[in-house]
Design brief:
Blueprint lengths: L25 H16 L4 E3 L9 E4 L10 E9 L5 E8 L2 E11 L1 E7 L5 E7 H14 L10 H16 L7
Antiparallel strand pairs: 1-2, 2-3, 3-6, 4-5, 6-7
The structure holds nickel (II) ion.
């Protein structure tokens, strides 16, 4: 188990387009394990590989609210049949720390992907699951949720982020 460093905006790597994975092997499974540990330790419900600096089309998620963990793994995910009806959630992102905004996304969608063992799967997603998978898929294209906001809102968030980044650690000795 390795907890990896999560990149935060502004960061050029986060804006890269991730590449498809040829096959799900040991290396990819190790990456997925690390991603899951990193996500849990940061109290997130989803993480894309690019957020730890790896430009591969891999996502981990766990939207279970109970204590029992229900990890989900998506390799080379593709979205189809997006609903024309939208739903709204207040979204945050581990790469945009402490910032939240209401984002509209198709309320349901179909996801084709490879699972942890490289098996082909299809998932009909709705509710939080649909929003979360779409948010994570955006990361694979170098898109962050703040990109959907008005220029003004986005620049306010970016300003706050750079303030957070430049903040000097306060110590009491
Ligand atoms: Ni995110």
């Amino acid at each position: 188990m390795t907890i990896r460093n999560i990149l935060t905006e502004p960061n050029k790597t986060l804006r890269q387009i991730s590449r498809n994975v040829d096959k799900v092997g040991k290396e990819e499974q190790k990456l997925m394990n690390d991603m899951l540990d990193t996500m849990y330790s940061a109290n997130g419900i989803g993480l894309a590989a690019i957020q730890i600096g790896v430009p591969k089309r891999i996502i981990v998620m766990d939207i279970s609210k109970d204590k029992e963990k229900k990890p989900m793994f998506f390799v080379n995910p593709e979205i189809d049949n997006r609903n024309k009806i939208f739903s709204v959630y207040e979204e945050g992102c581990l790469s945009v720390p402490n910032q939240f905004a209401e984002i509209e996304r198709p309320s349901t969608c179909e996801v084709k992907y490879l699972d942890y063992n490289g098996n082909k799967k299809i998932l009909n997603a709705e509710g939080l699951l649909a929003t979360c998978i779409q948010h994570e898929m955006d990361h694979l294209e170098g898109i962050l949720f703040i990109d959907y906001l008005s220029k003004l809102k986005k620049s306010m968030i970016l300003k706050k982020l750079s303030k957070q980044k430049n903040k000097i650690d306060r110590i009491v000795v």
